[in-house]
C-alpha cells in the first residue's frame, strides 16, 4: 500500500534518530505513516482539506511529544492516537455548527486517485455507514490494517470490530446492488 520500502523496524530506527535530533529522519517517518494518518482523520471528519490541516497538527504534536515517547507499543499506533484525538477535538468543536454529509459535499475522498476507480460510488456507499463503520472499513480495506490493530487503536473488542466490519460490508453490498438495478 505504501509507496516506499520502509518496514516497521526501519520506522523504529528512524523514530529513534528523530528523537535524538536527526531532523532528516522526519521524512522517513512521515512517508511511512502519512497515508494511515490521513485516512484515519478523513474517516472521522469527512473533509479533505480539514483532514490535511489536522494531519499537519498531528505531526507537529508528534514532534513536540516525541521526547516523552516511550517505545512500549507501536509508534504508528501512538501517532494514530494523536491524530484521532485531534480529529475528535475538532469534531467536538464543530459539532454544533456544522454537519458534513459525504453524499452531498462532493469529493469526500479528495483527489488522491488511489482509493478506487469511482470515488463518487464509494462516497455514496460509505454515506450509508455510521462513523464507526466508516472508520473500520477505511482502516481495514484501504489502509490494510488488521482487525486486531484497529480494535486496539479504537479501544474496542476484536469481535466488535470484526462484526462491525462484516455488517458494514453487507450494507455496502446491499446499496451497491440497489444502485445497479
Largest sheet: number of strands, sense, barrel closure? none
Using the alpha-carbon principal axes, give the shape.
globular
Distance between the termini: 33 Å
Task: Figure out the total of helices.
Answer: 8
CATH architecture of the largest domain: Orthogonal Bundle
- Mean pLDDT over the residues: 79
Low-confidence stretches: 98-117
- Under CATH at level 1, the class of the largest domain stands as Mainly Alpha
Q: SSE string, helix = H, strand = E?
A: HHHHHHHH
Number of domains: 2
Question: Radius of gyration, Cα only, in angstroms?
Answer: 17 Å
Q: What is the helical fraction, as a range of percent?
A: 55-70%
Which class do the helix and strand fractions yield? mainly alpha
Instruction: Count all strands and give the number.
Output: 0
Strand content: under 5%
CATH fold topology of the largest domain? Rna Polymerase Sigma Factor, Chain: A
CATH homology group of the largest domain: RNA polymerase sigma factor, region 2, helix turn helix motif
Describe the structure.
With 181 residues, this protein is mainly α. It has two domains: 1-100, Rna Polymerase Sigma Factor, Chain: A, CATH 1.10.1740.10; 107-181, Winged helix-like DNA-binding domain superfamily/Winged helix DNA-binding domain (Arc Repressor Mutant, subunit A), CATH 1.10.10.10. The protein contains eight helices and no strands. It has helices spanning 8-19, 25-45, 48-65, 75-94, 119-126, 131-142, 147-154, 158-179. α6 (131-142) packs across α8 (158-179). It starts with 7 loop residues before the first helix and ends with a helix. Residues 98-117 have low confidence and may be disordered.
Amino acid at each position: 500500500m505504501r509507496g516506499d520500502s520502509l518496514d516497521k523496524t526501519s520506522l523504529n530506527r528512524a523514530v529513534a534518530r528523530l528523537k535524538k535530533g536527526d531532523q532528516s529522519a522526519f521524512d522517513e517517518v512521515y512517508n511511512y505513516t502519512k497515508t494511515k494518518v490521513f485516512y484515519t482523520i478523513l474517516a472521522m471528519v469527512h473533509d479533505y482539506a480539514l483532514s490535511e490541516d489536522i494531519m499537519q497538527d498531528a505531526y507537529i504534536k508528534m514532534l513536540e511529544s516525541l521526547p516523552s515517547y516511550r517505545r512500549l507499543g507501536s509508534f504508528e499506533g501512538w501517532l494514530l492516537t494523536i491524530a484521532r484525538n485531534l480529529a475528535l477535538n475538532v469534531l467536538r468543536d464543530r459539532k454544533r455548527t456544522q454537519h458534513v454529509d459525504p453524499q452531498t459535499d462532493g469529493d469526500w475522498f479528495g483527489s488522491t486517485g488511489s482509493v478506487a476507480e469511482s470515488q463518487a460510488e464509494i462516497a455514496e456507499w460509505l454515506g450509508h455507514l455510521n462513523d464507526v463503520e466508516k472508520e473500520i472499513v477505511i482502516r481495514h480495506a484501504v489502509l490494510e490494517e488488521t482487525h486486531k490493530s484497529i480494535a486496539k487503536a479504537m479501544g474496542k473488542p476484536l469481535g466488535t470490530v470484526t462484526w462491525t466490519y462484516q455488517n458494514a460490508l453487507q450494507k455496502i453490498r446491499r446499496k451497491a446492488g440497489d444502485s445497479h438495478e
